[in-house]
Amino acid sequence: MLCLRYEPGLSIVDLASRIGRSHAGTVRLIDRLEKRHLVERRREKSDKRTRFIHLTDTGEQWVDTLVEARERLISECLSPLSPDDLIVLGALSERILRANGLDKARSALLLAQLRHHRACSEKDSAADPTSEPSS
Questions:
Q1: What is the pTM of this model?
Q2: How far apart are CA 129 and CA 80, in angstroms?
């Protein structure tokens, strides 16, 4: 959803490429997010065949909440570091990302995805709009 915040109107193909999922996996993800009214598929005048994915107002609010929570957590985790330490950490992080051939958009996405690894507890999936809805 962060990709759609910063690059609204991506096609499924482009979104799949950005998030490192298969086309089919991305379609299923968008289906789940659409059922929760977090994204919508739109047609553009320039290309009637392709649908482009946009965040809804609810999706924008959810991303705002996610970003705020992430920033609070990062701030708490980094609070022991001095301003000089933060500069060094930033420079080293950027160097690592560049050395691995990652551009800024992909780097930001990878950092955002760190919290969503399977190491998260099952209870976290209840608040996660990308998880399967419970019946």
A1: 0.63
A2: 32
Closest CA to 8 of 55, 58, 65, 42: 55
Which of 42, 40, 37, 29 is closest to 58 using CA atoms?
37
- At 46-81, the pLDDT tens digits run 777 888 999 999 999 999 998 899 889 988 998 999
Angle at 51 between CA 10 and CA 9, to 5 degrees: 25
